[in-house]
Amino acid sequence: MAKKSSMVYGKIYKTYTKRVMDIVLSLIAIAIFAIPAVIIMILIKLTSKGPVFADVPERIGEKAQKFKMYKFRSMIENAHNLLRTDPRFKKLYYEYKRGSYKLYNDPRVTTVGKFIRKHSLDELPQFVNVFMGDMSLVGPRAYYPDELKNQQRAYPHTQKLMKKVLSVKPGITGLWQVSGRSEINFDERIVMDSMYVDEISLKNDLMIILKTPLVMLTGKGAV
To answer: Which comes out higher in pLDDT, residue 150 or 33?
Structure first.
C-alpha cells in the first residue's frame, strides 16, 4: 500500500507539481538575476563582436524534439560553425570530439566568456526556457543533434539509456552537473541522467537545486 501511494505521489509530482515549481521558481530567478543579466549583456557587447546570445543550433529536448536554448554568448561570433567548418580549427575539432565534446583552454572563448562559463552565468537565460516549458529547472543535459549522434556511435551501449533520458525535459541543472560537470564523460553522464529519471522526486530535485549555487561559485568541473 505504501509503495502504491509512493508511485501515485511520484506520478503527480512528475506530471503536475514539477511544472508548477518550474514556473514559480523560474519567475523568481528571472527577477533576481535581471540586473546581473543586463550587466553581462553590456559586457559582452563592449568586449567582443557578435550577438548577446549564443548563435548555436537547436538542442534535443523532451521526446527528441528540437528547441532553441538561450545562452549568453561566451565565445567568438559563429564559434559553433567555425569549429566544424573552418580548416584552422580542424585539429581543435578532433580534440573536441575525442574529449567527449569538451575542450580545455578553448581559444574561441572570450575574456568575459571565461568568467561567465566558469560560474554558469551564461546559462541564466535558460530560466526563460524553463518558464516557456522547453526545459525544467532540474533534468538531464540537452545535447546538440550532431553531438548526440556521434557520442552514441562512440558509446553504443548508451542508446537504450538515452531513450529514457529523452523522455523528460532537459534541465538547467541536474545530477551530473552537481557531480563533476565536464569532468564526467558522456557514457557516465548518461548513466547518471537515467538514474535521475528513474528517481525523479521533489526531494531529489530540491537536493540538486540546493547543491547548484556552490557548484556555480566554485566553478568546479567547468570548461
So the answer is: 33
